[in-house]
Structures are given as C-alpha cells and as structure tokens.
Write a structure and sequence with these properties.
The structure is a homodimer. Chain A has about 120 residues and is of the alpha+beta class. The first copy, chain A, has helices at about 5-15, 25-35, 40-50, 115-124; strands at about 55-60, 65-70, 75-80, 85-90, 100-115. The longest helix of chain A is centred in the middle third of the chain and has 14 residues, at about 40-50. The radius of gyration of chain A is 18 Å and the shape is flat. Chains A and B meet through strand 3, strand 5 and helix 4 of A and strand 3, strand 5 and helix 4 of B. Chain A binds a DNA duplex (25 and 25 nucleotides) through helix 1 and helix 3.
Chain lengths: ~120, ~120
DNA sequence: ATTTGTGCAAATCCTTTGCAGATAA
DNA sequence: TTATCTGCAAAGGATTTGCACAAAT
C-alpha cells in the first residue's frame, strides 16, 4: 500500500465532508487540488478503502450512484429525507420519532453467516 | 392498468419463488411459459409493481443486480450469508444470535421526512 | 530496481427508452 | 376503437479494466 497524493487527497475530502459524497463529487473536489486526478483513481481508491474497512459504501433507494463515508466504527443508520434529500446519520439507540423524524420505511440488511455455514466453519 | 399475460406470469413467479430472484432469473423462468416475453417487459413490470407497492426491490452489498420480492406487508430484514450467498427473511423482532446466525454487519436505511421538512408539510 | 499506482480510453454490466406494431378494455 | 402494453434494438449511466507510463518504496 503506497501513500500517494491522490489517496491522501481523497481521504482528506472524506474526512472533511461528512455529507456522504458520491464518487463524482469526490472527484470534482479532488480536481481542485490535483487537477490531473482521474475518476478511475477515485473509484479504485474508494473500493480499496471499502475493502480495508476504512470507508463505508452507501446505496440509497432510488439513487443510482453509490455514496461514501468514513467508517467511524460507531453503528448508525442512514436516514434520507424524501423532501430535501439530505442524508442524516442517526444513532440506532434513540427512538427516531422523538426527535421529529417521520419514518416511512425502514430497510435492514444483515450480513454474516447463516446457521448452516456457521456450523461448517466451526467444524472445518 | 391492463391485465396482460406477461404481468400475470411475472406475478405468479414472484408468488411461487420466495428466493428473491433477479430480473434476469424472473425473465428466464417467464420464458418457459411465454417464450416471446422480453427482458424489457420484465424490468418495466417490476418497476411498476415496486411503484405500486406490490413488490420490494432489494439491493444487497456487492451485488450489482437488484432482487425482487413480493411485499408481504410484514416488516423483515434481509440476511445474506457470505458463505452460501443465500438470502433469508428474518423477523425484526427476534434476536438473531439465538437462532444460530452469525451477524457480522448490519446496514439500516430509513426513509421519510426529517424534522425540518416534516414541519413544513404540517404548515403547508 | 522493483513493485504498485495512475490516467486514459475503451469495455462492461444492468437497466431504461423510443418507437412501431400488438393487445386489452 | 383507443389507450395502454409489448418486443426489439439501441441508448444510457455508473463502475471497472487493460495497458503503458509514472511514482513510491
């Protein structure tokens, strides 16, 4: 893993902007500092960071582009407002209704091992 | 909304297969009954059904194709096993650990109105 | 010196769309 | 009849990839 200017810039953009930018938005901002950076590099770097667990990829309903966020390690849900399209990080520990959010739909995706495969892994 | 053979077949496939098929899988199965059906029609029909709330679109991490499931009205999460890739519907009311699932990651997406927009809607 | 990363352009993959003919109401 | 739906082929949009050059170790 080499430390390149491109990677540093992309990381910095994610660290400063906590608005869940798309790859294209990151690219546009990165160009202001490194005019010759390419979109491929942005995509490649983001994918590396996701694999390494440093970055989280967010795929909201109805959006074709993925969004990215630094992985803070804290569990939180992503709330998207259908009126203003803003995305909020919300704690999973607080009842949302109480703070004024109107929840219309909840999607939960869980990843891991099912009982059968979990069993196999233990045996192996 | 016309009732066509194509729509009936697609609906039946979704009713019988509760394996969260992709559009292509639905298409392949539909061809066995309607050899001339087109993939476009499958996509168009699924989209209509999603808009009407009859079908739920599922986008799992790492999968490029969307999956589809009849909307049963019951809230449930989707569990994907990283070993066998099977997708399970799991109740949101039971602690998963207890039934042998090894949970490694949870993604929660919430949709609705944020406090600010919720307020505006009341005032309007 | 050698390995790894980058930019470019082209390719890929899933999904959508325009249109002329077909079909349900 | 006539409004809507379909199949086809082509377009679209986001992301990935091959390759020759460049940069980091």
């Amino acid at each position: 893993m080499k430390i390149t200017k491109q990677r540093e810039v992309i990381y910095e953009i994610l660290r400063k902007n906590r608005n869940h930018p798309t790859a294209l938005e990151i690219f546009d901002e990165a160009k202001r500092i490194l005019p010759d950076i390419s979109l491929s590099t942005v995509y490649r770097t983001l994918k590396d960071m996701v694999v390494h667990g440093d970055v989280v990829e967010i795929k909201l309903e109805g959006e074709s582009k993925a969004r990215y966020d630094l992985n803070t390690g804290e569990d939180h849900a992503h709330f998207k407002c259908r009126a203003c399209n803003r995305i909020y990080d919300v704690s999973l520990m607080l009842p949302l209704d109480l703070v004024g959010f109107k929840v219309e739909k909840v999607d939960v995706y869980i990843y891991g091992l099912c009982p059968e495969c979990s069993q196999k892994e233990v045996t192996a």
